[in-house]
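Researcher: Please translate sequence to structure tokens.
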Amino acid sequence: MKFLRSLELEWKLIFIASVIFLAFYFPVQSLFHNRLYQTIMSSSDPVLEDHLRDRIDQTEGVDRTEAVELLERQLQWKASAPLVLREQKKQFQHVSLTLLITLLGAAFLSFSRLTRPLRVLASAVEKIGHGQSVDIAMRSGGSMGVLETKVNELQHELADLRKREQLAGMERAWRDIAKVMAHEIKNPLTPMRLSVDRIDEKIALESELSAEEMKRFTERMNRQLDTLEQLVNRFRSFSREPEAHCESFDPVQLIRETAEDMGSVIATSITGSGSVYADRSLLRQVVLNVFKNSVHATATTMTVSVSEKNHLVRIVLRDNGKGVVADKLPLLFLPYVTFSEGGSGIGLSVVKNLVEAMGGSVRAESVEGDGFAIEVVFKSGESA
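Model: Translation complete:
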């Protein structure tokens, strides 16, 4: 049946017609053979043969000669009957084969002509499906003509739908860009807000700000302002992937600065060291996104470990948040997928994009109710 379904319509019809022909051919041939055999055999009368033999024995002269001639003709016909039967059978087969070939040829030509508009229409539909414009000739009548008209109308409707979808896609893309930029701009604003709140708290308590504290707050805000400026510059060239200017450096100090910026909402401990080959600015965004993700997951502590082995540097950031069930881990780095209430689903997708732009890799580990960890791996600065 699978073979029959794969055939073109005209070959299916010819195959079915051949099966029907053969189904009738063998019973008809057997019936013809039996009838012919009975007819031939009925022409040879054994009683007549015995009568002629008796006449030959009992008569003489002309009567005996006539009886001998009649008996010889009777025996000759009896002997040639199988040959006649076989020859008639061959003739029947030849006529049947010729008739079959003629009918199948005529059927093929007829079916090909009848199905040609369907093949042309199927080819046109396939091209339309691939986005090509096709000129459908309205030559057929009846149901086929109606079908050609409908396909032509659907082609124009599909072209209009594609144009509208393209515009809608561009609109969605701009909305997505706006969401990403809003998320990325919001990240540096959080440490700045914490610094301003700290200054307000000092003012409210009428406490003096020491020069060292003021310097620390201003440096913190300047770092975030630099990050904002870099985000704006990247937004102007958003069509390009993040451009990484990698260098060798120890990431511990960079992580410590981000931890200090977020110190009022999450406590951080850092262990280990290593020389990483990455972009300072992009890595700062990666770490800040991970911290923000942990805060959204109600984490209060963060443990960061840096290790170097086999020319690779591993940075693991582990929090004590609510975590994620294991079967949801593959979805974490997809844009707009979030399992935190109020989350945007952008942070970790940005982390993945930035890490890969620096030639690194990232993966997540989580046990629901027992914390969450992000591991990023870069080339060692010494091996770069």
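Researcher: Any highlights?
Model: The first helix runs from residue 2 to 6.
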